[in-house]
Amino acid sequence: MRRLKILFIITRLIHGGAQKMALSMAEQLSRRGHSVVLACGPQAGVEGSLLPLARKMNIEVIIVDGLVREEHPLKDCLAMASLYWLIDSRRFDIVHTHTSKAGILGRIAARFAGTPAIVHSSHGHVFSPGANIPGVSNRKLMTKVFWLAEKIAAGMCHRIVTLTEMEKLDWLKLGLAPASKIEVLYNAIPLEEFNPDSVSAEEKARLKSSLGLEPPQKIVTITGRLTSEKGHDYLLETIKLVAGKMPFVRLLIVGEGPERTELEKLAREYGIAQNVIFLGLRNDVKHILAISDLFVLASRYEGFGLVLLEAMAMRVPVIATGVGGVPEIIDDGVTGMLALHDRPDEFAAKITELLQNSEKADRIASAGRQIVMRDFSMDKMVDGFEKLYLELCKSKHETTTSFTGTL
Prior knowledge:
Layout: E1 5-10, H1 17-31, E2 35-40, H2 51-56, E3 60-63, H3 73-90, E4 94-98, H4 100-112, E5 117-121, H5 139-154, E6 159-162, H6 165-174, E7 182-184, H7 201-210, E8 218-223, H8 232-245, E9 249-254, H9 260-269, E10 276-280, H10 285-290, E11 294-297, H11 306-313, E12 318-321, E13 337-339, H12 344-356, H13 358-375, H14 378-394, H15 396-401
Parallel strand pairs: 1-2, 1-4, 2-3, 4-5, 5-6, 6-7, 8-9, 8-11, 9-10, 11-12, 12-13
Helix pairs in contact: 1-14, 3-4, 4-5, 8-12, 11-13
């Protein structure tokens, strides 16, 4: 099999689903003999940086000055020039961009550098009403600007990879690219890492003790960035209702972000500060999932929901708001439960039901793990991308001429 030179470009290497996925892909492709370089901006954010993990994986990381999430014309030009120089000098076979800003600048730079195959993974898109666009006061105007920029960038790449069928449909409705250019490849997780049998009873007991948890407390967990689109405020309102009936419920919030101070204040205002534990960034998420009775996702917008796969793989029952691509992961009532993102009473009722009905919770947890093992393995996902890369490189001349008429 041909050894490919691949460049991944992502805006920020922070603790987030898109970033974790890009790193996992880079590691797996490297193990298969390909050369993978990752370029990212200098921002770490309050969410924390994954740069140490990338170095541990022996992935070459190049910091691109000027590549920032916010709109900044001067820095954007600097970043595009730096990316062009990098791509032109290293002569990559594949440039694969991830997330919106890196996707726009990276695809344009790769096109002008003459890269044989250009792929973009959006990991969700900014056009959804619930998606966060940082530093934007006039969302309506900026959405139009993003649409135009994305339309141009879409015409400069060979394939757009969406996380879900729903996201593909969104791209088609928005008129950003033809169906022939869009491919759906689901995210995945390393199943060997998220194995429920890998955490011993002694490890669980020690972790519970360190967190001050003891019977008959029921443990509900959420992991992810503390940002508005993740809906932690909505979840706290939900937990307030649950605690009214089950005062021994405990919510573990794993992750960091700009909303933390407000969320802590909200928990106090709701009178549930004793029910909520803010854990911040953790390197033992697998162990936290292992002690959890239930995992929840309360997002207002969610491109995919990678954390759901992690919980399901650890045989933890899940309840999530049915937004974005989540319904393509969860078969409601079978592999998990879905709730409306604006109905805390309904969400609370479903949480209470699974915490009180252990038989149903166990059945859902087992079915959830089975579906993750079948459909969301890392090998299956990397097979899909590797096949795509090789096909694009093989048909270099054909795909190069396909730029005509796509704008």
